[in-house]
Amino acid sequence: MSLRVLSRLDTARTQYCHFKAIIVAGMGLFTDAYHLFSIAPITTMLGYIYYDESPHHPIPHAVESAMLAVALLGTAIGQLIFGRLGDLVGRRRLYGLALMLIMAGSIGCGFSMGISKGYILASLGFFRFLLGVGIGGDYPLSATIMSEYANKRMRGAFMAAIFSMQGFGILASSVVTMVVCKIFGRSYPPSLNDPIPKKADIAWRLILMLGVIPAVMTFYWRMKMPETARYTALVENNVLQATQDMERVLDMSDCQIAEGHCLQPSQSSYLLFSKQFFLLHGRNLLACSSTWFLLDIVFYSYPHLQSEIYFMSQHDKDTADTVFDAAFKVARLQAIMACSSMIPGCIAAFFLIDRIGRLIIQAVGFVLMAIVYFSIGVPYDRYWQHHPSALFILYGLTSFFANCGPNTTTFILPAELFPARFRTTCHGIAGAAGKAGAIIGVVLMASLERRVTLIIWGGICAAGMVGTSMFTKETRGTSLEENED
Questions:
Q1: Which domains, ranges and CATH numbers included, belong to the chain?
Q2: How would you class 315 by CB atoms within 10 Å of its CB: exposed for 0-12, middle for 13-18, buried for 19 or more?
Q3: Distance, CA of 73 to CA of 31 (rounded, Å)
Q4: Angle between helix 423-443 and helix 275-299 axes, rounded to 10 deg
Q5: pLDDT averaged over the chain?
């Protein structure tokens, strides 16, 4: 049975359905980033409310790390579970479920209740774990759906556009936090000697619950999306249904689809994790997992040092009068980083990835990150700790290189290299490995001495460059079926 419909997908001109898929899938990443990164100003507020925080006595590191790690643990579990189920029951059937978990987790975080500090924080941790499971489920599904919808000429750019929503999600969470803090802070007396600010307890809940809005806006469109043609044709072996679904999506008729180049369905029947699977795909799975693991150790741990260096360079670093002022400054830092490095890096990746290739920009990104970290870390005690403003700019460069390189490509490559019946599973495994690295980063790396941390980060980035050399092929300009062969 010929699979001309897949060939037509690869050669289809860019049209409305592709941009709609970017928005629908991208809003998941937008919501994910909103919640994963909004916790930084939230923990600042929690410190003031429950730990009598002042600029000199921050929230305990163990509590802050736990709030980050519990969501990352949920994300890893969600990637594994939804990744496997995405290959067993289909991408579309689970797409709405992942979003419902995100919405339930968002609202639950806002309604974290209890009779004491411990109960409230435990409740918040539980709902952040639930939120993380939904976020984890969204990663392999969004990446795979976009890769299977896209034409091969623009597939990398489309997936980079989806991933860029992470930067916009971070910016949105920062803007919402700043607006809420300004509104609530207008009527609050600016004195650290005042009683615990009850308004702050409402403010942090409101910030978290507002993150449900983009998820609600895209839920209907997710439920209306047809199953991807590649899953229907290659996994369910229903080519007729795949053709009919693509007629609804692509601006072409059935006869035009039938005129495409003839492809034959794969006759392979090897099982997941069988000897043949590892012979054919084990090296790529190891490369995807190891590079994502190494990247996330650095990516999720460096914001902590970045915030320290930023406030070192500010003359008003110890003048936060209220809980709202302190949270506002943390959110402002995240907004600055999103606008100056993360979003520009993603935009650069959008334009480069289908021209230069995934592996080149990933390797170059790792190399440039390693160079900057070594350049900061080795002479840190003699020079850089006395020039925090210049140091902050260099930190911004590492964020740009990450988003123009491995932070984007580690999301894209697992959705391109594996067969359709293992695609979300392998993406989930690679993503879960990344989140394991992230947990190591937020729990262990931030507690090390700063110069040592910087040098270790440089070594990790160098190892990521070596890991990139393990990939068996470049996926630029090739169809997903050619990658499988």
A1: 4-260+270-476 (1.20.1250.20)
A2: exposed
A3: 17
A4: 30
A5: 85
